[in-house]
């Protein structure tokens, strides 16, 4: 054994690779693919050697642009910002680039779930195998269960103590109403159907197939299964014997290595990659205790039917999976470069997740993910077309390294940074032959909005930002620009998360707005939410909406670039305290789980004890908003610390039932989580683009070292 192996690392073509990670890549990833490990590592090292300096230079450019913007605002502080002058300045420094000439994307070999279907999308943390399997299996979901167990239905909740027949009757009635609206019968109601033969549909084309005990219908490209079972407790009391209505729900799922996970070292990355491999091989399983029994969850098989034409019909049993890599900013100690520095994590992710996905496109797994033979990678937090172009070049190199055809690796571009929003057409142009996804996301985009204009003045209150003019322009421009460049029929245009998984009634009232904008997918927080949100895509023919929106005028840049400054506002002491408390509670509630337990996404109670599905974007906006008010004297350091300490006590109380929880209150120096939250606020102005990752990673590594899991880095 050499010294490298003794230190837990193995040398591979000049790279110092964590030994367990190297063994995993060599044996479990490359071996079944027939790729020689020596050739792979030699090519990987060359790729890293070429792209790392470029990556670093792009980050330097981010900092230099921000410094110029900071200086510009400081020189004009207190003066009105004239749109034409501001736009000219941003063009002069290269923040804004010229609009590209007309073009259409040329992406090919795209699965229909992305290209020609409209429906819900899930995002799931890759480190949690059970959650990952639940999300992958959320392609189909019981509408009866979704209604019975949530507040989505306008009826009294189920009484405890077993099956509530009154609640069940309300669910069945709602199911009939849904069928009458979506699949109307000829001169009858579904309440009158006796369950015999094929239902007499007004539109015969909606009948898609049959199987024993089931009828398959289709509307707006989405399938609905009517389960017929007179032996079932629900079907036994039903005139037609309908035991359930099963919705085709989460068409796609993003398996996340980024904002919803706390992955800071080789141990974490190995688990992430291993779970992704299990999905691509189709053999990932998770065992858990429920009701005193051990249950095992695995991936669902495809669904077999006989089509309306009497031919075999196979429908996917699982959501089509993307994988979200990390952005360009962070590095990871899982692999050290020849100079001893950490590898850019986004470069490592691109190579390893693509190699793992080859198990799918080579047909080595139990199930197929991409029937079109593509690998789908969502790339977050890119700033402008130059960085998107870097990703395109990187993916070219990954394809060459792995022997893949050009543009096998597809890309989803997250429109969540201001420089990308302002140059979206040029960003799409940079990946025009591999793009399959764009979306909008309020939290990260708002965090960048605040940080970019940090020196301009104090921002309006966080809740008010949602109603500010730039948000409306941002959401509209994203769809219009995507449609103008040919994404309809080839790619997804997505909208952001509904964060409250226990508030399904409100979601059903509000989230229909997303398909009405022309977005053919939108994020939901759970498989149950996906089942319910699928109803919106039956009510709205999204591709018809896209044709209408394509004729509308795209909002101009001035609206997008309008900074949400609180000019002339004089808040009361109570209003300041209220805003600080809201931000501090949300910040601490998330950070304490991230640092102490390594949980990157969970249902976190807000200041009003409403559970919200939170990921890292939450603390970016909260910490940046507090840092902004601190910088401009809206709040003092003492006021901020007072809020942090009082809210630490509140968060402790909210987590009192968690046996793994470590309290923060009164342990101001001992609690790494509390100290991390303080750093995020008091050092928020200095954080690169307002990102939280550098501080979170540093404090999580200290926490892991303190409990003896890893050696603390120098």
UniProtKB/TrEMBL annotation:
Enzyme superclass (EC): transferase
Residues where Cysteine sulfenic acid (-SOH) is found: 601
Any single Gene Ontology cellular-component annotation: cytosol
InterPro entries: Malate_synth_C_sf (IPR044856), Malate_synth_sf (IPR011076), Malate_synthase_TIM (IPR001465), Malate_synthG (IPR006253), MS_C (IPR048355), MS_N (IPR048356), MS_N_TIM-barrel_dom (IPR046363), MSG_insertion (IPR048357)
Domain Malate synthase TIM barrel: 321-554
Residues where Mg(2+) binds: 416, 444
GO molecular function, one term: malate synthase activity
Record-listed glyoxylate binding positions: 324, 416, 441-444
Active site: 324, 615
Keyword Coiled coil tagged: no
Binding residue positions for acetyl-CoA: 123, 130-131, 260, 297, 525
Domain (Malate synthase C-terminal) ranges: 575-657
Pathway(s) this gene product operates in, as recorded in its UniProt entry: Carbohydrate metabolism; glyoxylate cycle; (S)-malate from isocitrate: step 2/2
Obligatory cofactor(s): Mg(2+)
E.C. designation(s): 2.3.3.9
Domain of life: Bacteria
Reaction equation(s) it catalyzes: glyoxylate + acetyl-CoA + H2O = (S)-malate + CoA + H(+)
A Pfam match: MS_N
Domain Malate synthase G alpha-beta insertion span(s) in chain numbering: 163-192
Physiological role: Involved in the glycolate utilization. Catalyzes the condensation and subsequent hydrolysis of acetyl-coenzyme A (acetyl-CoA) and glyoxylate to form malate and CoA.
Similarity comment: family membership: Belongs to the malate synthase family. GlcB subfamily.
NCBIfam families found in the cross-reference section: malate_syn_G, PRK02999.1
Subunit structure: Monomer.
Protein name: Malate synthase G
Originating gene: glcB
């Amino acid at each position: 054994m050499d010294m490298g192996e003794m230190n837990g690392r193995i040398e591979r073509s000049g790279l110092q690779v964590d030994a367990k990670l190297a063994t995993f890549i060599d044996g479990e990833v490359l071996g079944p693919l027939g790729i020689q490990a020596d050739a792979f590592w030699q090519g990987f090292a060359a790729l890293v050697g070429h792209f790392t300096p470029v990556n670093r230079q792009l980050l330097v450019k981010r900092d230099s642009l921000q410094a110029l913007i900071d200086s510009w605002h400081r020189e004009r502080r207190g003066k009105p910002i004239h749109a034409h002058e501001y736009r000219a300045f941003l063009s002069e420094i290269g923040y804004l680039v010229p609009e590209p000439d007309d073009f259409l994307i040329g992406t090919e070999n795209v699965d229909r779930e992305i290209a020609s279907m409209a429906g819900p999308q899930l995002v799931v943390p890759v480190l949690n195998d059970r959650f990952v399997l639940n999300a992958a299996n959320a392609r189909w979901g019981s509408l009866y269960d979704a209604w019975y167990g949530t507040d989505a239905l306008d009826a009294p909740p189920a009484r405890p103590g077993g099956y509530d027949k009154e609640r069940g009757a309300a669910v069945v009635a709602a199911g009939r109403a849904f069928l009458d609206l979506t699949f109307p019968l000829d001169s009858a109601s579904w309440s009158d159907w006796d369950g015999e033969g094929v239902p007499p549909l007004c539109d015969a084309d909606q009948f898609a197939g049959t199987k024993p005990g089931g009828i398959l219908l289709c509307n707006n490209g989405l399938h609905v299964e009517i389960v017929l079972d007179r032996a079932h407790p629900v079907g036994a009391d039903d005139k037609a014997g309908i035991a359930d209505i099963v919705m085709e729900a989460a068409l796609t799922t993003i398996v996340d290595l980024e904002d919803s996970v706390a992955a800071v070292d080789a141990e974490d990355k190995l688990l992430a990659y291993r779970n992704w491999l299990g999905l691509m091989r189709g053999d990932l399983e998770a065992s858990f205790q429920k009701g005193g029994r051990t249950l095992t969850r695995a991936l669902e098989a495809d669904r077999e039917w006989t089509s309306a034409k009497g031919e075999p019909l196979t429908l996917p049993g699982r959501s089509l999976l993307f994988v979200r890599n990390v952005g360009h900013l962070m590095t990871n100690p899982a692999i050290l470069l020849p100079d001893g520095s950490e590898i850019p994590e986004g470069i490592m992710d691109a190579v390893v997740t693509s190699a793992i996905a080859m198990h799918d496109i080579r047909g080595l797994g139990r199930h197929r993910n991409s029937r079109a033979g593509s690998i789908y990678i969502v790339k977050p937090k890119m700033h402008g077309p130059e960085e998107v172009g870097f990703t395109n070049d990187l993916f070219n190199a990954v394809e060459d390294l792995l022997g893949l055809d050009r543009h096998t690796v597809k890309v989803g571009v997250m429109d969540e940074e201001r420089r990308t929003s302002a140059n979206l057409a040029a960003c799409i142009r940079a990946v025009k032959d591999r793009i399959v996804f764009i979306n909008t996301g309020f939290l990260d985009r708002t965090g960048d909005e605040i940080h970019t204009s940090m020196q301009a003045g104090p921002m309006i209150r966080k809740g008010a930002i949602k109603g500010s003019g730039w948000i409306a322009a941002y959401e509209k421009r994203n769809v219009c620009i995507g449609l103008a460049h040919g994404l309809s029929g080839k790619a997804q245009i997505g909208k952001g998360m509904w964060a409250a998984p226990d508030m399904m009634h409100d979601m059903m009232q509000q989230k229909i707005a997303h398909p009405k904008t022309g977005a053919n997918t939108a994020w939901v927080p759970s498989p149950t939410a996906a089942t319910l949100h699928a109803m919106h895509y039956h009510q709205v023919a999204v591709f018809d909406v896209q044709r209408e929106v394509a004729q509308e005028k795209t909002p101009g840049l001035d609206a997008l670039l309008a900074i949400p400054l609180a000019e002339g506002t004089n808040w009361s002491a109570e209003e300041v305290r209220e805003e600080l408390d809201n931000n501090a509670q949300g910040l601490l509630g998330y950070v304490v789980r991230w640092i102490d337990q390594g949980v990157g996404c969970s249902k976190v109670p807000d200041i009003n004890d409403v559970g919200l599905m939170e990921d890292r974007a939450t603390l970016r906006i909260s910490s940046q908003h507090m840092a902004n008010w601190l910088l401009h004297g809206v709040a003092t350091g003492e006021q901020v610390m007072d809020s942090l300490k009082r809210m630490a006590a509140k968060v402790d109380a909210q987590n009192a039932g968690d046996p793994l929880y470590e309290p923060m209150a009164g342990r101001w120096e001992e609690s790494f989580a509390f100290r991390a939250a303080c750093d995020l606020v008091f050092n928020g102005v200095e954080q690169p683009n307002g990102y939280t990752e550098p501080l979170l990673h540093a404090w999580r590594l200290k926490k892991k070292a303190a409990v003896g899991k890893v050696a603390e880095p120098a």
